[in-house]
Amino acid sequence: MMRTERNIAQVLFRRYLEDPEEIALVLHFRGGDTLITVRQLFEGAAGHALRYRAAGIHPGEVVVDLLPPGEDLLYSFFGATLIGAIPSILPFLTEKLDPNRYRESLDSLVAITRPAALIAESDFAAVLRAHLAHAERVKAILDPGTHLEGAEIPEPSSWEGLKAEGSSVALLQHSSGTTGLQKGVALSHAAVLRQLAAYLPALEFSTQDVIVSWLPLYHDMGLIAGFLLPILAGAKLVMLSPFEWVRAPWLLLQAVSSYHGTLSWLPNFAYNFSAARIPDRELAGVDLSSWRAVINCSEPMAAESHRMFTNRFRAWGLRENALATCYAMAENVFAVSQGGIGEAVRIDRVDGEVLARQALARPAESSSARVVEVVSAGPPLRNCELRVVDPDGSPRPDREVGELVLHSDCMLDGYFNRPDATAEALRDGWYRTGDLGYLAEGEVFITGRKKDLMIVGGKNIFPQDIEALINQVPGVHPGRVVVFGIFNPALGTEEVAAVVETDPRSRGDPARLSLAIRETVATGSEVTLGPLKLVDERWLVKTSSGKIARGANRDKLLAEES
Amino acid sequence: MDDIEDRLRAYLADNCLHLPPAQIPTEQPLLTSGLVDSFHLVDLALFVESEFGVRIDDTELNPGTFDTLNQLAQLIRMRRP
After folding, report:
1. Domain count across chain A
2. Which of B24, B36, B44, B58 to mutate to test the interface with A (most CBs of A within 10 A)?
3. Residue A75 lies in a domain
4. Do A44 and A180 belong to one domain?
5. CB-based contact A115:A92 (threshold 8 Å)
6. In Å, how far is B70's CA from the nearest CA of chain A?
């Protein structure tokens, strides 16, 4: 399918030569559908490419894309590709975010990633121009309306991006928050194309597939599965707005029905969210029988979430085996394993006590007091090798839980401008995922996480970023804040929990302080706070060196609440 | 008259703010503050529909329609059958 192209621009150009009038994608937004042909996509990208060129952006330089969902976001991304620059899509400023904090977090990105250009909607671009006036290396802050004087559209075959080496960086992916913005995952053209070459057969993909996605493009699942995969592999994409979907989750099912969608990717919480919050009246006439794979990916997968979803939508034609699973990470472009295509997802029933105490996934027996259902993420892709290792790096046998390490031909080049972080993550060519799990009968099972990262509604959130926000709230004892994730089975995802020591000198009202903390987290990050406990100076568990240990405090809170 | 406010307050206290209901100011911004995040909005709309028989369309779930508890209560009064 990928033939012999060396870079993303060449793939897009080939589609443009072969069938320019083919519908590449449909923007299925409230207010109407916009059909975009391959020609429109290429020419839209060319318009942005000219703008970048006029601004003096060179091949290999980074363009940070802060546009909201819509045509310009797609064109500006591929525009960077056409001039051989490196696009990186980040969350745009929404009305709930505090603009000052948002700008601060961009500062940390600008300091490390050193973009040559940023593109944002005109109002925000104006703010950024003032804010980043003195930023070194930032040559231009553009908006989609930036006027071009007398620029001529060049011959399509003359774009410098078509000459990019496979080994050159194609794009950067970032997680959110100060921590995430400081670690841009740099992926080469070759890595992106090899990911597709390995992933498409695992999906039993054909160009007749129709991908339906509401996922935002600033996360790997949305960017790769919900955008680049269909565009580069030549299947139709129906794209919804994440902002509309979250207010009306039935829009996805209606779109699958009207466009005969075959493939979608969803984070686990979306199964619960859809099953619990879609009234029957929104499903009138909906037929889901075309949906051959609804792929659970990017956060811990719960068997119960699958049951909820299947039971809720069976009556609307959802196939019994439609649900599928995937283990993925930006550091591997996207997918590492894929399960459940055309068959039932395997659920491993293991003894919960043995799993917790011996880190061993022993199949449950009738005598097992507690059974844990672990959802298989399927076998590794043909280009991916996974091992489960001890802390010292030696491999563990099947069914023993340890850290998963990955080797493939589509891994990250490194974290952009972060040789230190790259050296920490990669050892002898193996990427240390920070995920805990086991292998059994050739399939991979994820059971937990070694790293502190929280995954909330499919978004990667670093606890230290949330702690830093809470530390700034007056009435909080700075440095005496601990944040961690707690899985909420009803929501099908983790909630962000915080234990906060109050400042003994402040005599504020606890309810006001709680509200202030919640508001600070909500406006300063992509998440809202779940459980919040205000404590005095005796509560927090500290290590002998006085450090606040996340795990110990999490255990204490859970023990108190149970 | 205050019945709508009280029922809304009890709902928000339990589901979004995790606070005793009496502690929620009626003028507290809910949407622009992010305290009621987008994942809660569908729930809130379904609650308003089942509790008061008032439909709030998903396209209206933004601060242009309501932001505070008072504004939401007013909207419900205006639309109530």
Report:
1. 3
2. B58
3. yes
4. yes
5. no
6. 18
Question: What whole-number distance in Å separates Cα of residue A173 and Cα of residue A164?
Answer: 19
One domain for residues A443 and A458: no
Share the mean pLDDT of chain A.
94
Nearest CA distance, B55 vs chain A (angstrom) = 13
CA distance from start to end of chain A: 53
Burial of A539 (0-12, 13-18, 19+ CB in 10 A): middle
pTM score, whole prediction: 0.94
CATH number at residue B52: 1.10.1200.10
Residue range A128-133: mean pLDDT, rounded = 88
ipTM: 0.92
- Chain A residues closer than 8 Å to B63 by CB: 95
**Count of alpha carbons within 13 angstroms of residue A195, beta-carbon side:** 30
Residues A210-265 pLDDT 10s: 999 999 999 999 999 999 999 999 999 999 999 999 999 999 999 999 999 999 99
In total, how many domains does chain B have?
Answer: 1
Q: Which residue of A has its CA nearest to B21?
A: A511
- Across the interface, of A279, A514, A522, the residue whose CB is closest to B34 is A522
A293 vs A266: CA distance, rounded Å: 11
Query: What count of residues does chain B have?
Result: 81
Chain A closest-CA separation from residue B80 CA (Å):
20
Mutation site for A-interface testing, chosen from B12, B24, B26, B38 by largest number of A Cβ within 10 Å: B38
- What is each CA distance from A280 to A276, A283, A538, B55, in whole angstroms? 11, 5, 51, 15
Whether residues A513 and A534 share a domain: the answer is yes
Return the pLDDT at A470. Answer: 97
CA separation for the pair A532, A513 (Å, rounded): 11
- DSSP state at residue A155: P
Reported as a pLDDT band with limits 50, 70 and 90, residue B2 is low
CA distance A475 to chain B (A): 17
Does some domain include residue A392? yes
Which token pair is A283?
């499903």
Nearest-CA neighbor of A354 among A346, A342, A341, A365? A365
Interface size A-B, in CB pairs within 8 Å, comes to 66
Tally of CA atoms within 13 A in the half-sphere of A315 that contains its CB: 8
Domain holding B25, by residue range, is 3-79
